[in-house]
Write a structure and sequence with these properties.
Bound molecules: calcium ion
Structural class: alpha+beta
Radius of gyration: 62 Å
CATH architecture of one domain: Sandwich
Subcellular location: Endoplasmic reticulum-Golgi intermediate compartment membrane
Distance between the termini: 183 Å
Largest sheet: 9 strands, antiparallel
GO molecular function: D-mannose binding
Shape: elongated
GO biological process, one term: endoplasmic reticulum to Golgi vesicle-mediated transport
Keywords: Disulfide bond, Lectin, Membrane, Signal, Transmembrane, Transmembrane helix
CATH class of one domain: Mainly Beta
Number of strands: 16
Membrane topology: Single-pass type I membrane protein
Strand content: 15-25%
């Protein structure tokens, strides 16, 4: 089989040269192909990607009612469910695998596998493998798949068989169908490339992106530390890789003495086409026979459904066709229902608002009642209290009145003052003069009072003094007084005359 020769994986230069010598047929294909791959630098524009549904699975409706996965076959202990395939449960010595039903013939491809390897132990076993092989390795002891595979296996090896403390590890091993996997040494000497990554018990699913493009196999890993799906980091690369022209994609797992749950959440395959090359039409991949088969299957199901419907209607004549109509709704029905639901929600909101408004109004009414009861001063038990209150209010009112009066007075003063200042210009010193007069009046009043006081004090004191003092000087008679005054006046006149005579004599002398 020519494909058998061509479908062979090798990367190391040493290995390649030996193969070339031993297998002359390879010269027809490989050396030039390898050369082209080696010289070909990374393309400027990315390749065209097309999702291949027939080589993929993904939740949430991963499994069919009969327990199978569409376009895939599962073996061993694998348990497909709605959102994942448990390749092995965490039990001892389990093995399981899932393989595409049909063989692919993509020149370049990419697979994105999302999985979880979880176990209660600090160490788990054995591991998980992603395959691209010329045949389905449905059963075997290489991570749950067949040994002597033709193609490539990417192993997520949990258990450290050789005790070199280098597990968990991701290893790529190519095989042309002759190699026997060295399980005891974790395939250390057979590995084309490897990278140490712990993929067990991660908070988020681990993602592996395996790309085979222009004969270079690249593995990128999302370590499951973040929910970011695109958080990939480089793990390993194998250049000058030869793979079978046609192959099956698969994923397998196994447990040993130790056991982990090996769950695959999704397996997405993309066909890559180099820029400039024509993209193969998708329908060409599906054989006519399969098309017919699926069409037949569909028609068969349709007929069965109709039959069941009829039977049901016969058994339940009351329900008639309404049941079926109730289960499925048309676009118009859905729109109407959505409008109705929206309106219902608005109606409910309004109802709620109304209830709240009623509550507020009720509260207000209560307050108003309480206030009016207090105001009317009911004759009940609270009579005294209200009287006291009233008294207090009256008092404060009186106080207020006095204050108001005071303010009024002071305002009047201010007005007067302002009036005075207004008239100051025209009436001149009118205000001043009135003030003056009032001052004089006051002073006069004070003088008058003082005199009165003096008179009152003097009246009794005269009697007392007269009794104490000698009678002559104090009780002077008017006659003596006048005589004294006349003598003094005569003396004054004579002195004045004398002085005028003296002054006249002095003037004459000078
Ligand atoms: Ca191992
Ligand atoms: Ca190891």
């Amino acid at each position: 089989m020519a494909a058998r020769v061509a479908l062979f994986a090798a990367a190391a230069g040493r290995l390649l040269s030996v193969e070339c010598l031993l297998l002359p047929l390879l010269l027809l294909f490989s050396p030039c192909r390898f050369g082209a791959a080696a010289d070909g630098s990374a393309p400027a524009s990315p390749p065209h990607r097309r999702f291949e549904y027939k080589y993929s699975f993904k939740g949430p409706h991963l499994v069919q009612s009969d327990g199978t996965v569409p376009f895939w076959v599962h073996t061993g202990n694998a348990i497909p469910s709605a959102d994942q395939i448990r390749i092995t449960p965490s039990l001892k010595s389990q093995r399981g695998s899932v393989w595409t039903k049909s063989v692919s013939s993509f020149e370049n491809w990419e697979v994105q596998v999302t999985f979880r390897v979880t176990g209660r132990g600090r160490i788990g076993a054995d591991g998980l493998a992603i395959w691209y092989t010329s045949h389905q390795g449905l059963d075997g002891n290489v991570f749950g798949a067949a040994d002597s595979w033709n193609g490539v296996g990417i192993f997520f090896d949990s258990f450290d068989n050789d005790g070199k403390k280098n597990n968990p590890v991701i290893v790529v091993i190519g095989n042309d169908g002759h190699l026997i996997y060295d399980h005891q040494n974790d395939g250390a000497t057979q590995a084309l490339a490897s990278c140490q990554r712990d993929f067990r018990n991660k908070p988020y699913p681990v993602r592996a992106k395996v790309t085979f493009y222009q004969n270079t196999l690249t593995v990128m890993i999302n370590n499951g530390f973040t929910p970011n799906k695109e958080d990939y980091e480089f793990c390993l690369k194998v250049d000058k890789m030869m793979l079978p022209k046609q192959g099956y994609f698969g994923i397998s797992a196994a447990t040993g003495g130790l056991a982990d749950d090996h769950d695959v959440l999704s397996f997405l395959t993309f066909q890559l086409t180099e820029p400039g090359k024509t993209v193969p039409p998708p329908d060409s991949e599906i054989p006519e026979m399969e098309k017919d088969k699926y069409q037949e299957e569909f028609e068969h199901f349709q007929q069965e459904l109709d039959k069941k419907k009829e039977e049901f209607q016969k058994d339940h004549p009351d329900m008639q066709e309404h049941l079926a109509d109730d289960v499925y709704e048309s676009i118009g029905d859905r729109e109407l229902r959505q409008i109705f639901e929206g309106q219902n929600r608005i109606h409910l909101e309004i109802k709620q608002l109304n209830r709240q408004l009623d509550l507020i109004l009720d509260e207000q009414r209560k307050y108003v009642d309480r206030i009016t009861k207090r105001g009317s001063g009911t004759m009940g038990e609270q009579g005294q209290v209200t009287e006291n209150d009233l008294e207090a209010i009256l008092k404060t009112q009186e106080d207020l009145l006095t204050y108001v009066n005071e303010i009024k007075n002071s305002m009047g003063d201010v007005l007067k003052l302002s009036g005075g200042s207004q008239h100051a210009g025209s009436a001149g010193g009118l205000y001043e003069s009135t003030q003056h007069f009032s001052d004089i009046k006051e002073h006069l009043h004070v003088v008058k009072k003082d005199i009165e006081n003096l008179v009152q004090q003097n009246l009794p004191s005269e009697k007392q003094k007269c009794a104490d003092l000698p009678p002559f000087p104090s009780c002077l008679s008017t006659t003596y007084f006048f005589v004294f005054v006349a003598v003094q006046t005569l003396l004054l006149i004579s002195y004045m005359m004398y002085r005028s005579q003296q002054e006249a004599a002095a003037k004459k002398f000078f």
